Amino acid sequence: VIPFKPYLKWISIAAVLLIGLMVWAPWWATLSEKYSISREMSVAERGDGGEDGLQKAAELYNAKDFTGAGKILEKAYAAAPEDAMLAYYYGLTLMETGKATAARTVLGKLYAGESVFKYDAAYGIALSYVKEKDHPKALEWLEKIPEGSTNHDKARELIGKLQ
């Protein structure tokens, strides 16, 4: 007969760790969560000291308060729809708040232009389709992301998962 008492402490620790892993479960992330856009919004490079509203929007966006950031960015975007940075982050806030169609409209205009955010917008549109489980349209947008762009590697990997 082997006494069970000395092993009880280790069995308890193992059970707590196992339960913790099951609750945390990083392997259960959806494709849209796993391949999400992780860029933080920064308005520091804009150089205008008087953009307190955009600074507040950036703080809210970076804190993942997309509803609050979206309200500020909506007004700023309405005043300056040609501003590529505003369009990009406004589109992302729309996507994060469940307004995928509106997000695709904003990001689609950005993709149609000649902006540094062009291919980031395509990736955002693709992710919006991934969230909706519309894999053919997601693949269509992922294919538009050329080699050398910011999200190219993630796009290629995601294409492999969707096919």
How would you describe this protein?
The N and C termini lie far apart (56 Å). The chain has helices at residues 5-24, 31-34, 52-62, 66-79, 84-96, 100-112, 118-131, 135-142, 152-162. Helix 3 (52-62) packs antiparallel against helix 4 (66-79), helix 5 (84-96) packs parallel to helix 7 (118-131) and helix 7 (118-131) runs antiparallel to helix 8. It has 163 residues and is an all-alpha fold. It is elongated.
Short description:
The protein has 163 residues and is mainly alpha-helical.
- Please give the count of helices: 9
End-to-end Cα distance, whole Å, is 56 Å
* Percentage of residues in strands: under 5%
* Quaternary structure classification: single chain
According to DSSP, the number of beta strands is 0
Helix percent band:
55-70%
Q: Return the string of H and E elements.
A: HHHHHHHHH
Mean pLDDT: 85
Q: Which outline best applies?
A: elongated
Low-confidence stretches: 46-50
The major pleated sheet works out as: none
Question: What is the alpha-carbon Rg in Å?
Answer: 21 Å
What structural class should be given to the helix and strand makeup? mainly alpha
Topology:
Elements: H1 5-24, H2 31-34, H3 52-62, H4 66-79, H5 84-96, H6 100-112, H7 118-131, H8 135-142, H9 152-162
Helix pairs in contact: 3-4, 4-5, 5-6, 5-7, 6-7, 7-8
Salient structural properties:
single chain; 163 residues; mainly alpha; 66% helix
